[in-house]
Write a structure and sequence with these properties.
- By secondary structure, this protein is α+β, with helices and mostly antiparallel strands.
- The protein folds into two domains: about 120-360, Thrombin, subunit H; about 365-450, PDZ domain (Pdz3 Domain), CATH 2.30.42.10.
- Helix content is about 20%, strand content about 30%.
- The protein contains nine helices and 22 strands.
- The chain has helices spanning about 50-55, 65-100, 115, 120-125, 155-165, 205-210, 345-355, 375-380, 415-425, and strands at about 165-175, 185-195, 200-205, 215, 225, 225-230, 235-240, 250, 265-270, 275-290, 295-300, 315, 320-330, 340-345, 365, 370-375, 390-395, 405-410, 410, 430-440, 440-450, 450.
- The strands form four sheets. It has a seven-stranded antiparallel β-sheet. It has a six-stranded antiparallel beta barrel with strand order 9-10-11-14-13-12. Strands 16, 17, 18, 19, 20 and 21 form a six-stranded antiparallel β-sheet that branches.
- Strand 12 (about 315) and strand 13 (about 320-330) form a beta hairpin.
- The termini are far apart.
- The model is unreliable at about 15-20, about 45-60, about 65-70 and about 100-145 (pLDDT under 50).
């Protein structure tokens, strides 16, 4: 604690204001700058604080120690840049000397050409398909249709973009008789695939069968009338042609190299209104035996979505190659994911023959005119008591009209499908034995096969 005695006694107040003592002037403030942080000499004691502060601001700058240091840094930077330039020039000179002394590269060491590393699009380099020359049964196998041996695997969007201009919409008009109502025009729709730059298009026979007018619409909106070239009912293939420019043909793939599980996409015109629709899936089977439009066919099976209107469209692999022509779908309650396509190797051969010859070359024929009776109503109409395959017209002396064919080379025949299968692997000039039933008799005849012509 503090004690009052620690402080001096307070003087008594004066008697009046006149006796107030005069306050002494404060002593002059002498500023002494620290000796450690300043090199300046001490100011005279007579200077006031303001004059001292003014003197501080008016003093000359400190010695140019920092400027000399900055100058040294600039010289070092210039030397570094100069050294870098010298090093670069030395590298160029060394490379030039090395190239001059290096011998010329051999053929094996030469850089590959652009075509080796980045193959051009097939339709930019491939020759025109279907060049019209002398008839040749093997013309399709001799690279007259575009193929793409250098193709690479693509993504689904890349495949869709590559083939979208090759798949077309087909619309047909058919004049039909309405009995007492007269004639009327019915419309149909399907798909097709451009297979040559000069306008040949492959589609299904059932898409254009009986049509009086055929129209083709491209993805760019152009529409052309089409001419029917020829059809083949047995394979459900037809070829039509348009006259246009800037057409992009599809690239044929090899359907014999397909494997189950391989990815595939279908492009077509489902429902006749949704042209350019792309659906994806896999190859589900390679050799499904199917009956389409009354004809036995061996087809590819896919789970890519296929609907009415897709017929004649393309089934493509992931190299944007045409591996099948869509032609059928199994439909019904709770049935999904069953689409079928004609293998590209079959379609390619048939299309080439239809263009070159108007029919498929190499098929065999017995020369017999036949009718397949498979209903009791048809049997009553023809006045026969059994269903089966009957001869309507024959030039063979041992066979007569009305004979029912029961076997070909011992292979049982119940209908036209069996008959076609029995002759499928035969060649023109082969001899087969035909067995027929005539009443209670069984008669055989030897027939030499000829080439089938429509």
């Amino acid at each position: 604690m503090y004690n009052d005695n620690d402080y001096p006694p307070r003087p008594s107040p004066p008697a009046s204001n006149s006796q107030l003592p005069t306050r002494p002037s404060p002593p002059a403030f002498n500023y002494q700058p620290p000796t450690k942080t300043s090199q300046r000499p001490p100011l005279p004691p007579s200077q006031t604080f303001n004059s001292q502060l003014s003197a501080i601001h008016s003093q000359p700058p400190p010695p140019p120690q920092r400027q000399r240091r900055q100058m040294h840094v600039g010289i070092k930077a210039l030397l570094m840049v100069f050294g870098l330039i010298v090093a670069i020039m030395a590298g160029f000179v060394g490379g030039y000397i090395a190239n001059v002394r290096r011998p010329a590269p051999t053929a094996d060491e030469a850089m590959p050409s652009i075509s080796q590393t980045s193959p051009a699009l097939p339709w930019e380099t491939a020759s025109q398909p279907f060049e019209h020359a002398a008839p040749d049964p093997d013309m399709v196998n001799s690279s007259t249709l575009i193929s793409n041996p250098a193709a690479v695997t693509m993504t689904t969007p890349e495949v869709a973009a590559a083939v979208r201009q090759s798949v077309v919409e087909i619309k047909t008009e058919t004049v039909r008789s309405g009995g007492w109502t007269g004639t009327y025009v019915s419309e149909g729709a399907g798909s097709g695939v451009i297979i040559s730059e000069d306008g040949y298009i492959i589609t299904n026979n059932h898409v254009i069968s009986g049509a009086s007018s055929i129209y083709v619409s491209l993805v760019d909106g152009r529409e052309f009338p089409a001419t029917l070239i020829s059809t083949d009912q047995r394979t459900d293939i037809a070829v039509i042609k348009i006259t246009g420019t800037g057409l992009q043909p599809a690239i044929f793939g090899d359907s014999s190299t397909l494997v189950v599980g391989e990815s595939a996409i279908a492009v077509g015109n489902p429902l006749g209104e949704l042209g350019g629709t792309v659906t994806g899936g896999i190859i589900s089977a390679l050799d499904r035996e199917m009956i389409v439009e009354g004809e036995a066919m061996t087809l590819l099976q896919t789970d890519a979505a296929v609907n009415p209107g897709n017929s004649g469209g393309g089934l493509f692999n992931m190299r944007a190659e045409l591996i099948g022509v869509v032609n059928a779908k199994s439909g019904g309650l709770n049935i999904e994911g069953l689409g079928f396509a004609i293998p590209s190797n079959v379609a390619k051969k048939v299309a080439g023959d239809l263009i070159m010859h108007g029919f498929v070359r190499g098929r065999t024929d017995t020369g017999l005119e036949l009718i397949d009776i498979q209903s009791t109503q048809t049997a009553r109409w023809y006045r026969v008591n059994q269903l089966g395959l009957y001869i309507v017209n024959s030039d063979n002396e041992r066979l007569r009209n009305g004979d029912r064919i029961t076997a070909v080379d011992g292979f049982p025949i119940a209908d036209l499908y069996d008959y076609t299968e029995a002759l499928k692997n035969r060649s023109v000039g082969d001899t087969v034995t035909i067995t027929v039933s005539r009443g209670d008799e069984s008669i055989t005849a030897e027939i030499t096969l000829i080439e089938w012509m429509p």
